[in-house]
Amino acid sequence: MPATPIAAAVRYYRRGLTKVSWVPTLANKAAPTRAELNAGTELSVEVGAVDGWQIVSATVDTPTLGSKFNAKIDGAISADDSSLTLYASQTGTDVRNLLGRGTNGFVVWMDEGDTPGRTMDVFPVRVTSQVKLRTMEDAAQVQVQFAVTAQPEENVVIPA
Fold first, then answer.
1. Where exactly are the structural domains of the chain?
2. Which of 27, 60, 99, 132 could bridge to 75 as Cys pair (CB 3.0-4.6 Å)?
């Protein structure tokens, strides 16, 4: 008897569905309340590019004298430096007013939308810089760079 196949994914296109928000304070990053999430600022409507936002584990070699094979185990968990690139406003009223260098808070990713019962990832972060991207052909943008300051919470249930 063959193995049971994994359930077929309901595939989706991220643009127009995924929500990313800035939340200044959370009492418990593993269980944000709806009031805390609503007190944040949804950034999705101005995000033009993203980079990073991945949680990875290093591996540690565990060689033994009795084998030529180098077995491995999981090691330290880390998150790469990450950024959000948002559109700049000609009036100067944009993400630069919200996310200044040194600001601490949380970036919340709701990959399948802000739908209660689905899941989100919560990244505790500090803003490390605001980079004004200057090009001749593209709309003006500001890249906000973040350091992830503690282990993110993954697959947290979105509250009603």
1. 19-56+75-157
2. 60
> Tens digit of pLDDT for each residue in 85-138?
999 999 999 999 999 999 999 999 999 999 999 999 999 999 999 999 999 999
Contact criterion met (CB below 8 Å) for 40 and 23: yes
Give every CB contact of residue 137 below 8 A, 6+ residues apart in sequence.
none
Q: Supply the pLDDT for residue 1.
A: 86
Provide the whole-model pTM: 0.93
Class of domain 19-56+75-157: mainly beta
DSSP for 46-99?
GEEEEE---EEEEEEE---TT-SS--EEEEEEEE--EEEEEEPPTTS-SHHHHS
